[in-house]
Protein backbone atom coordinates (compact mmCIF):
# COMPACT_ATOMS: atom_id res chain seq x y z
CA UNK A 1 0.00 0.00 0.00
CA UNK A 2 1.33 3.44 -0.91
CA UNK A 3 1.07 5.92 1.95
CA UNK A 4 1.05 9.70 1.86
CA UNK A 5 4.44 11.35 1.53
CA UNK A 6 3.98 13.17 4.83
CA UNK A 7 4.18 9.84 6.66
CA UNK A 8 7.59 9.08 5.18
CA UNK A 9 8.82 12.54 6.18
CA UNK A 10 7.95 12.13 9.85
CA UNK A 11 10.11 10.11 12.24
CA UNK A 12 8.44 7.91 14.85
CA UNK A 13 8.75 8.98 18.49
CA UNK A 14 11.93 7.40 19.86
CA UNK A 15 10.85 8.11 23.42
CA UNK A 16 7.59 6.20 23.03
CA UNK A 17 9.35 3.35 21.21
CA UNK A 18 11.91 2.81 23.95
CA UNK A 19 9.28 3.12 26.69
CA UNK A 20 7.17 0.51 24.89
CA UNK A 21 10.15 -1.85 24.56
CA UNK A 22 10.95 -1.46 28.26
CA UNK A 23 7.36 -2.25 29.20
CA UNK A 24 7.35 -5.32 26.94
CA UNK A 25 10.57 -6.60 28.53
CA UNK A 26 9.09 -6.07 31.98
CA UNK A 27 6.01 -8.07 31.00
CA UNK A 28 8.36 -10.90 30.07
CA UNK A 29 9.52 -10.95 33.68
CA UNK A 30 12.75 -8.98 33.32
CA UNK A 31 13.83 -6.52 36.01
CA UNK A 32 13.84 -3.23 34.08
CA UNK A 33 15.02 0.05 35.53
CA UNK A 34 13.18 2.53 33.34
CA UNK A 35 14.25 6.17 33.08
CA UNK A 36 12.60 6.72 29.72
CA UNK A 37 9.08 8.05 30.22
CA UNK A 38 8.28 11.67 30.94
CA UNK A 39 5.55 10.61 33.32
CA UNK A 40 5.19 11.23 37.07
CA UNK A 41 5.00 7.97 38.98
CA UNK A 42 2.38 9.32 41.38
CA UNK A 43 -1.35 8.68 41.36
CA UNK A 44 -3.54 11.60 40.35
CA UNK A 45 -4.44 13.44 43.60
CA UNK A 46 -7.62 12.22 45.28
CA UNK A 47 -9.68 15.41 45.01
CA UNK A 48 -9.15 15.48 41.25
CA UNK A 49 -10.25 11.86 40.83
CA UNK A 50 -13.27 12.44 43.06
CA UNK A 51 -14.35 15.43 40.97
CA UNK A 52 -14.31 13.29 37.83
CA UNK A 53 -16.30 10.55 39.59
CA UNK A 54 -18.87 13.09 40.71
CA UNK A 55 -19.16 14.41 37.16
CA UNK A 56 -19.81 10.85 35.98
CA UNK A 57 -22.49 10.36 38.61
CA UNK A 58 -24.08 13.65 37.52
CA UNK A 59 -24.34 12.45 33.94
CA UNK A 60 -21.61 14.65 32.43
CA UNK A 61 -20.93 12.05 29.77
CA UNK A 62 -22.25 13.68 26.59
CA UNK A 63 -20.71 15.73 23.83
CA UNK A 64 -19.47 19.12 24.94
CA UNK A 65 -18.20 22.27 23.23
CA UNK A 66 -15.23 21.55 20.96
CA UNK A 67 -13.14 24.26 22.63
CA UNK A 68 -13.85 22.94 26.11
CA UNK A 69 -16.34 23.21 28.96
CA UNK A 70 -17.01 26.90 29.75
CA UNK A 71 -16.29 26.36 33.45
CA UNK A 72 -12.87 24.90 32.65
CA UNK A 73 -11.98 27.64 30.18
CA UNK A 74 -12.87 30.22 32.83
CA UNK A 75 -10.79 28.36 35.43
CA UNK A 76 -7.83 28.32 33.03
CA UNK A 77 -8.25 32.04 32.37
CA UNK A 78 -8.24 32.67 36.13
CA UNK A 79 -5.11 30.54 36.53
CA UNK A 80 -3.24 32.30 33.73
CA UNK A 81 -4.04 35.66 35.27
CA UNK A 82 -3.14 34.78 38.86
CA UNK A 83 -0.14 32.51 38.24
CA UNK A 84 1.33 33.97 35.06
CA UNK A 85 0.01 37.54 34.80
CA UNK A 86 -1.49 36.74 31.39
CA UNK A 87 -4.83 38.35 30.62
CA UNK A 88 -6.70 35.87 28.46
CA UNK A 89 -10.48 35.71 28.28
CA UNK A 90 -12.20 32.30 28.07
CA UNK A 91 -12.86 32.76 24.35
CA UNK A 92 -9.09 33.03 23.85
CA UNK A 93 -8.60 29.55 25.33
CA UNK A 94 -9.27 26.07 23.99
CA UNK A 95 -9.04 22.74 25.79
CA UNK A 96 -7.23 19.96 23.91
CA UNK A 97 -6.51 16.25 24.18
CA UNK A 98 -3.24 16.79 26.02
CA UNK A 99 -0.64 19.49 25.64
CA UNK A 100 0.63 17.73 22.53
CA UNK A 101 -2.62 18.32 20.64
CA UNK A 102 -2.61 21.98 21.60
CA UNK A 103 0.70 22.37 19.76
CA UNK A 104 -0.41 20.21 16.84
CA UNK A 105 -3.59 22.26 16.41
CA UNK A 106 -1.48 25.43 16.54
CA UNK A 107 0.86 24.25 13.79
CA UNK A 108 -2.02 23.19 11.57
CA UNK A 109 -3.83 26.50 12.08
CA UNK A 110 -0.82 28.80 11.78
CA UNK A 111 1.94 27.28 9.64
CA UNK A 112 1.70 27.45 5.86
CA UNK A 113 3.98 25.64 3.37
CA UNK A 114 7.42 27.22 3.49
CA UNK A 115 6.95 28.99 6.83
CA UNK A 116 10.00 28.64 9.06
CA UNK A 117 9.76 27.68 12.72
CA UNK A 118 12.79 28.25 14.95
CA UNK A 119 13.43 25.37 17.35
CA UNK A 120 16.37 25.39 19.80
CA UNK A 121 18.15 22.05 20.15
CA UNK A 122 17.96 20.00 22.30
CA UNK A 123 14.23 20.00 21.62
CA UNK A 124 11.21 17.95 22.57
CA UNK A 125 11.00 15.16 20.03
CA UNK A 126 7.63 16.18 18.53
CA UNK A 127 8.32 19.84 17.73
CA UNK A 128 10.07 19.37 14.36
CA UNK A 129 7.70 16.59 13.29
CA UNK A 130 4.63 18.74 13.93
CA UNK A 131 6.12 21.53 11.84
CA UNK A 132 6.89 19.06 9.05
CA UNK A 133 3.36 17.67 9.06
CA UNK A 134 2.07 21.24 8.72
CA UNK A 135 4.36 21.59 5.66
CA UNK A 136 6.55 24.15 7.43
CA UNK A 137 10.33 24.13 7.73
CA UNK A 138 11.94 23.41 11.12
CA UNK A 139 14.96 25.65 11.65
CA UNK A 140 17.11 23.98 14.29
CA UNK A 141 19.40 26.22 16.37
CA UNK A 142 21.97 24.17 18.33
CA UNK A 143 22.77 25.18 21.89
CA UNK A 144 25.63 24.00 24.12
CA UNK A 145 26.09 22.71 27.63
CA UNK A 146 28.28 25.76 28.30
CA UNK A 147 25.20 27.99 27.85
CA UNK A 148 23.06 25.51 29.83
CA UNK A 149 21.41 24.47 26.56
CA UNK A 150 19.61 27.80 26.22
CA UNK A 151 19.24 29.80 23.02
CA UNK A 152 20.67 33.31 23.28
CA UNK A 153 19.05 36.47 21.90
CA UNK A 154 21.92 36.74 19.39
CA UNK A 155 21.29 33.18 18.15
CA UNK A 156 17.58 33.83 17.84
CA UNK A 157 18.12 37.08 15.97
CA UNK A 158 20.57 35.43 13.58
CA UNK A 159 18.14 32.58 12.81
CA UNK A 160 15.28 34.90 11.82
CA UNK A 161 14.60 35.33 8.09
CA UNK A 162 11.72 36.85 6.11
CA UNK A 163 10.14 33.37 6.16
CA UNK A 164 10.21 33.02 9.95
CA UNK A 165 6.73 32.62 11.35
CA UNK A 166 7.17 31.13 14.82
CA UNK A 167 9.69 30.53 17.59
CA UNK A 168 9.16 27.60 19.99
CA UNK A 169 10.20 28.25 23.59
CA UNK A 170 10.09 25.50 26.23
CA UNK A 171 10.92 26.43 29.82
CA UNK A 172 11.32 24.44 32.03
CA UNK A 173 12.75 22.29 29.27
CA UNK A 174 12.19 18.77 28.11
CA UNK A 175 14.78 17.24 27.66
CA UNK A 176 17.36 19.37 29.50
CA UNK A 177 15.56 20.51 32.66
CA UNK A 178 16.91 24.01 32.10
CA UNK A 179 14.87 27.08 33.10
CA UNK A 180 15.33 30.47 31.47
CA UNK A 181 15.76 33.26 34.01
CA UNK A 182 13.32 36.19 33.91
CA UNK A 183 16.05 38.40 32.43
CA UNK A 184 16.74 35.81 29.71
CA UNK A 185 13.02 35.60 28.93
CA UNK A 186 12.75 39.38 28.64
CA UNK A 187 15.76 39.52 26.32
CA UNK A 188 14.24 36.88 24.02
CA UNK A 189 10.92 38.73 24.11
CA UNK A 190 12.63 41.87 22.85
CA UNK A 191 13.91 39.97 19.80
CA UNK A 192 10.46 38.50 19.11
CA UNK A 193 8.82 41.92 19.24
CA UNK A 194 11.59 43.57 17.25
CA UNK A 195 11.32 40.97 14.48
CA UNK A 196 7.52 40.83 14.49
CA UNK A 197 7.42 37.03 14.72
CA UNK A 198 5.28 34.82 16.96
CA UNK A 199 6.41 32.74 19.91
CA UNK A 200 4.66 29.73 21.39
CA UNK A 201 5.60 29.14 25.01
CA UNK A 202 5.33 25.51 26.10
CA UNK A 203 4.98 25.76 29.87
CA UNK A 204 3.80 22.28 30.82
CA UNK A 205 6.60 21.83 33.42
CA UNK A 206 6.13 25.25 35.03
CA UNK A 207 5.21 23.86 38.46
CA UNK A 208 8.32 21.67 38.77
CA UNK A 209 11.12 24.04 39.77
CA UNK A 210 14.16 23.66 42.05
CA UNK A 211 16.39 25.86 44.19
CA UNK A 212 15.90 29.52 43.28
CA UNK A 213 14.61 28.96 39.72
CA UNK A 214 11.74 31.26 38.73
CA UNK A 215 9.32 30.75 35.88
CA UNK A 216 8.31 33.79 33.84
CA UNK A 217 5.86 33.41 30.97
CA UNK A 218 7.26 35.24 27.96
CA UNK A 219 3.84 36.78 27.37
CA UNK A 220 4.21 38.57 30.71
CA UNK A 221 7.55 40.13 29.74
CA UNK A 222 5.84 43.18 28.24
CA UNK A 223 2.50 44.21 26.69
CA UNK A 224 4.15 44.04 23.25
CA UNK A 225 5.40 40.50 23.95
CA UNK A 226 1.92 39.41 25.02
CA UNK A 227 0.59 40.48 21.61
CA UNK A 228 3.05 38.07 19.92
CA UNK A 229 2.68 35.14 22.35
CA UNK A 230 0.71 31.90 22.27
CA UNK A 231 0.72 29.85 25.49
CA UNK A 232 0.54 26.06 25.64
CA UNK A 233 0.13 24.12 28.87
CA UNK A 234 -1.59 21.12 30.39
CA UNK A 235 -2.25 19.02 33.47
CA UNK A 236 -0.11 15.95 32.81
CA UNK A 237 3.14 16.81 34.56
CA UNK A 238 2.25 19.09 37.47
CA UNK A 239 -0.83 17.12 38.55
CA UNK A 240 0.19 13.58 37.54
CA UNK A 241 -2.63 13.44 34.98
CA UNK A 242 -0.80 12.01 31.95
CA UNK A 243 -3.52 9.56 31.01
CA UNK A 244 -6.30 12.11 31.34
CA UNK A 245 -5.16 13.85 28.13
CA UNK A 246 -6.09 17.43 28.98
CA UNK A 247 -4.09 20.38 27.71
CA UNK A 248 -4.89 23.87 26.57
CA UNK A 249 -3.87 26.61 24.20
CA UNK A 250 -4.28 30.36 24.82
CA UNK A 251 -3.81 33.08 22.24
CA UNK A 252 -5.52 35.53 19.91
CA UNK A 253 -9.22 34.76 19.48
CA UNK A 254 -8.88 34.36 15.71
CA UNK A 255 -6.20 31.70 16.17
CA UNK A 256 -8.15 29.86 18.87
CA UNK A 257 -11.23 29.77 16.63
CA UNK A 258 -9.15 28.36 13.77
CA UNK A 259 -7.51 25.74 16.00
CA UNK A 260 -10.92 24.79 17.39
CA UNK A 261 -12.24 24.35 13.86
CA UNK A 262 -9.42 21.89 13.18
CA UNK A 263 -10.14 20.04 16.41
CA UNK A 264 -13.82 19.84 15.51
CA UNK A 265 -12.88 17.68 12.52
CA UNK A 266 -10.37 15.51 14.36
CA UNK A 267 -11.19 14.68 17.98
CA UNK A 268 -14.07 17.03 18.81
CA UNK A 269 -14.31 17.79 22.53
CA UNK A 270 -12.04 16.46 25.25
CA UNK A 271 -13.56 13.78 27.53
CA UNK A 272 -16.31 15.70 29.30
CA UNK A 273 -16.14 14.30 32.83
CA UNK A 274 -12.32 14.46 32.80
CA UNK A 275 -12.57 18.22 32.33
CA UNK A 276 -14.28 18.50 35.69
CA UNK A 277 -11.26 16.79 37.22
CA UNK A 278 -9.12 19.48 35.59
CA UNK A 279 -11.30 22.18 37.17
CA UNK A 280 -10.69 20.60 40.57
CA UNK A 281 -6.94 20.55 39.85
CA UNK A 282 -6.93 24.31 39.24
CA UNK A 283 -9.30 25.27 42.03
CA UNK A 284 -8.34 22.71 44.66
CA UNK A 285 -5.55 22.72 47.28
CA UNK A 286 -2.05 23.14 45.79
CA UNK A 287 -0.25 21.08 48.44
CA UNK A 288 -0.39 17.91 46.31
CA UNK A 289 1.71 19.62 43.63
CA UNK A 290 4.28 20.72 46.21
CA UNK A 291 4.48 17.21 47.67
CA UNK A 292 5.35 15.78 44.28
CA UNK A 293 7.81 18.58 43.57
CA UNK A 294 9.67 17.89 46.81
CA UNK A 295 9.92 14.20 45.91
CA UNK A 296 11.35 15.10 42.49
CA UNK A 297 13.83 17.46 44.17
CA UNK A 298 15.14 14.67 46.41
CA UNK A 299 15.48 12.31 43.45
CA UNK A 300 17.24 15.03 41.48
CA UNK A 301 19.92 15.43 44.12
CA UNK A 302 20.52 11.69 44.23
CA UNK A 303 20.72 11.11 40.50
CA UNK A 304 22.97 14.11 39.84
CA UNK A 305 25.43 12.85 42.46
CA UNK A 306 25.37 9.33 41.07
CA UNK A 307 25.87 10.38 37.44
CA UNK A 308 28.69 12.80 38.25
CA UNK A 309 30.50 9.97 40.03
CA UNK A 310 30.65 7.98 36.77
CA UNK A 311 33.85 8.73 34.80
CA UNK A 312 33.15 10.01 31.28
CA UNK A 313 29.70 11.44 32.00
CA UNK A 314 29.04 15.16 32.51
CA UNK A 315 25.86 17.10 33.21
CA UNK A 316 24.52 20.41 34.45
CA UNK A 317 22.10 20.75 37.35
CA UNK A 318 18.51 20.61 36.07
CA UNK A 319 16.53 23.56 37.39
CA UNK A 320 13.09 22.24 36.50
CA UNK A 321 11.08 19.30 35.09
CA UNK A 322 12.34 15.79 35.98
CA UNK A 323 15.09 15.09 33.47
CA UNK A 324 18.87 14.89 33.69
CA UNK A 325 20.60 15.62 30.39
CA UNK A 326 23.96 13.89 30.22
CA UNK A 327 26.86 14.44 27.81
CA UNK A 328 28.47 11.12 26.78
CA UNK A 329 30.80 12.52 24.11
CA UNK A 330 33.90 11.54 26.13
CA UNK A 331 32.92 7.91 25.69
CA UNK A 332 33.04 8.16 21.90
CA UNK A 333 29.68 6.40 21.84
CA UNK A 334 26.71 6.79 19.52
CA UNK A 335 23.74 7.59 21.73
CA UNK A 336 21.32 5.26 19.93
CA UNK A 337 23.67 2.27 20.07
CA UNK A 338 24.59 3.19 23.65
CA UNK A 339 20.97 3.16 24.81
CA UNK A 340 20.05 0.02 22.85
CA UNK A 341 22.93 -1.92 24.39
CA UNK A 342 22.22 -0.50 27.85
CA UNK A 343 18.64 -1.74 27.66
CA UNK A 344 19.47 -5.17 26.24
CA UNK A 345 22.55 -5.87 28.35
CA UNK A 346 21.81 -4.10 31.65
CA UNK A 347 18.01 -3.71 31.44
CA UNK A 348 18.17 0.05 31.90
CA UNK A 349 15.93 2.21 29.69
CA UNK A 350 17.25 5.68 28.83
CA UNK A 351 16.47 7.90 25.82
CA UNK A 352 19.27 8.67 23.33
CA UNK A 353 19.96 12.33 22.70
CA UNK A 354 19.60 11.72 18.98
CA UNK A 355 15.84 11.92 19.58
CA UNK A 356 16.30 15.52 20.71
CA UNK A 357 18.75 16.64 18.03
CA UNK A 358 21.92 16.09 20.10
CA UNK A 359 23.41 12.63 19.37
CA UNK A 360 26.24 13.01 21.91
CA UNK A 361 23.84 13.00 24.87
CA UNK A 362 21.31 10.89 26.76
CA UNK A 363 18.19 11.88 28.71
CA UNK A 364 17.49 10.27 32.07
CA UNK A 365 14.03 10.74 33.58
CA UNK A 366 14.02 10.64 37.36
CA UNK A 367 10.25 10.39 37.59
CA UNK A 368 10.71 7.11 39.42
CA UNK A 369 11.44 5.90 42.95
CA UNK A 370 14.80 6.21 44.70
CA UNK A 371 15.37 2.46 44.82
CA UNK A 372 15.08 2.24 41.04
CA UNK A 373 17.42 5.22 40.70
CA UNK A 374 20.07 3.57 42.89
CA UNK A 375 19.86 0.21 41.12
CA UNK A 376 19.76 1.78 37.69
CA UNK A 377 22.76 4.02 38.31
CA UNK A 378 24.72 1.01 39.62
CA UNK A 379 24.03 -0.72 36.31
CA UNK A 380 24.84 2.39 34.27
CA UNK A 381 28.19 2.74 36.05
CA UNK A 382 29.05 -0.86 35.26
CA UNK A 383 28.03 -0.43 31.64
CA UNK A 384 30.08 2.75 31.11
CA UNK A 385 33.25 0.90 32.17
CA UNK A 386 33.12 -0.87 28.79
CA UNK A 387 33.69 2.45 27.05
CA UNK A 388 36.71 3.54 29.13
Automatic annotation (TrEMBL):
MF annotations from Gene Ontology: pyridoxal phosphate binding; transaminase activity
Enzyme nomenclature, EC number: 2.6.1.-
UniProt xrefs under PROSITE patterns: AA_TRANSFER_CLASS_1 (PS00105)
A Pfam family it matches: Aminotran_1_2
Top EC class of this enzyme: transferase
PANTHER family named in the record: ASPARTATE AMINOTRANSFERASE
Organism: Vasconcelosia minhoensis LEGE 07310
Name this protein carries in UniProt: Aminotransferase
Amino acid sequence: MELAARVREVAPSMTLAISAQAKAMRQEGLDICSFSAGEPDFDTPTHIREAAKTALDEGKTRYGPTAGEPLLRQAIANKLQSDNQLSYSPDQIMVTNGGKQSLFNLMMAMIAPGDEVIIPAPYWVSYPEMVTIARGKPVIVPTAMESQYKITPAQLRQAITPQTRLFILNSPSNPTGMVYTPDEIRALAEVVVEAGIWVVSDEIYEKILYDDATHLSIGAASPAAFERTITSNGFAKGYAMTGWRIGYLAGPQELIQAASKIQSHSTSNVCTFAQYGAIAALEGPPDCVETMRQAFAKRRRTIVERVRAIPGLTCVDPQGAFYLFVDISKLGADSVEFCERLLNEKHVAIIPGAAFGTPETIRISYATDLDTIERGMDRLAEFVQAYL
